Automatic annotation (TrEMBL):
Residues 225-244 are annotated as: Disordered. Belongs to the RIB43A family. It comes from Perkinsus olseni (Perkinsus atlanticus). This is Uncharacterized protein. Keywords: Cell projection, Cilium, Coiled coil, Cytoplasm, Cytoskeleton, Flagellum. It is found in: Cytoplasm, Cytoskeleton, Flagellum axoneme. Residues 86-113, 305-348 form a coiled coil. Pfam families: RIB43A. The keyword Acyltransferase does not apply. Microtubule inner protein component of sperm flagellar doublet microtubules. Residues 228-244 have a biased composition (Basic and acidic residues).
Length: 375
């Protein structure tokens, strides 16, 4: 193996590689040392009993739990307020859309009324300016070749009979179309009546179901109230029995005890208990009875308050649930009514816009009247 003095590094890359390797080794050693130090510190902190007891305070834990519960309640309250705001915005949006649809329908209704009453062919200004039946001069230019033939004594086919036949056919078509429209209207009325009956039946079933659920809840509430009263009565009897037993025990210890029932002279001569110490024992036992009685009364009051709070929370939850069910049923009813109105409007629009018969009246039909004025 060559000595250090005989080693020759031939390139710059090898020099940089050697420096990089040594640097990485140093960093790895430092990292391992830091991990060892950290583990040793954690071990010392865990094994040190004085360190382990730092922060072990029941008051602080209860305060932290109270803060967490308050934060959770605030989050629930904020979520409830956000949900209420969203529901209000949805209701406002639905109201705006409903008003927009009503306004659109009103404009369309007015437009159709104006079109049917003011925009017919005979009501237009152009019709009066270009009336085909106005008085014309009797010549070939205005009356046509048929009039000239009649004036000349020739026979011309009876166009008036043809026109009467065309008019009769058009009237029959109009009558058939009116019958079809009446039949469609009757079907629409029947469909609307069935829809109303379906909606009313569904609402009646939902109301009956809600009434049955409400009656069951009311019966359950009455049963719970009765059971709570019985439980309170039982607790009261037990409390009275406990107080009676406690007083009986006190009486037994006060009047049946051999230590306290002896005479004053005997107690002083043989037992060494003076009268003031005897009275102190009696007072101490009486205080114990009073403390036990107060403790039992406080416990009963706390249980009664907890039961009342639980009952109030349950009633509030039932009330909120009933209100939500009522809102849901009203929303469903409104949605059904809106769908029914939209369906009726669409059917009416389809009947108006659907072409039952193609129009047989052309411009040539009016030209025939102009050319047969002589008949």
């Amino acid at each position: 193996m060559p000595s250090l003095s005989t080693i020759v590094i031939t390139s710059k890359a090898e020099v940089e590689s050697a420096h990089e390797t040594s640097r990485l080794r140093v960093e790895l050693a430092k990292k391992l040392q830091r991990k060892r130090d950290k583990r040793a510190e954690i071990s010392d902190r865990l094994l040190d009993p004085r360190t382990r007891q730092i922060g072990a305070s029941v008051t602080k834990w209860e305060k932290q739990l109270a803060e967490k519960e308050e934060f959770r309640q605030s989050q629930i309250h904020a979520a409830r307020e956000d949900r209420a705001v969203l529901e209000e915005l949805d209701r406002i949006t639905q109201q705006i859309e409903r008003e927009h649809r009503e306004a659109t329908r009103e404009r369309e209704k007015l437009a159709r009324y104006h079109s049917l009453n003011n925009l017919s062919k005979t009501a237009r200004r152009e019709y009066f300016l270009s009336d085909p039946k106005r008085d014309l001069s009797i010549d070939m230019e205005h009356l046509g070749p048929s009039a000239a033939q009649v004036f000349a004594g020739e026979f011309v086919e009876d166009k008036k009979a043809t026109q009467s036949e065309i008019v009769r056919g058009l009237k029959e078509q109009e009558l058939e179309k009116e019958v079809l429209l009446q039949r469609e209207a009757a079907l629409e009325r029947a469909f609307a009546e069935l829809s109303d009956l379906d909606v009313k039946t569904r609402i009646e079933l939902e109301n009956r179901e809600e009434d049955s659920i409400r009656a069951g809840r009311r019966a359950l509430d009455e049963f719970n109230c009765e059971m709570q009263q019985k439980r309170k009565e039982k607790e009261r009897r037990e409390r009275e029995d406990a107080e009676t037993r406690a007083r009986r025990d006190v009486d037994f210890h006060l009047y049946q005890s051999g230590l306290l029932s002896e005479s004053i002279g005997t107690s002083s001569d043989f037992k060494g208990i003076p009268l003031d110490e005897k009275q102190m024992v009696v007072d101490w036992q009486a205080r114990q009875v009073d403390e036990k009685r107060e403790r039992i009364a406080d416990e009963n009051d706390r249980r009664a308050r907890d039961a009342a709070e639980a009952e109030a929370q349950r009633l509030e939850a039932v009330k909120v649930h009933d209100e939500q069910e009522l809102q849901r049923r009203r929303a469903a009813q409104a949605l059904v009514e809106e769908n029914r109105r939209l369906a009726e409007a669409q059917n009416k629009e389809r009947i108006r816009t659907e072409e039952v018969y193609s129009s047989s009246i052309k411009e040539t039909f009016f030209d025939q009247f102009a050319k047969s004025a002589c008949h």
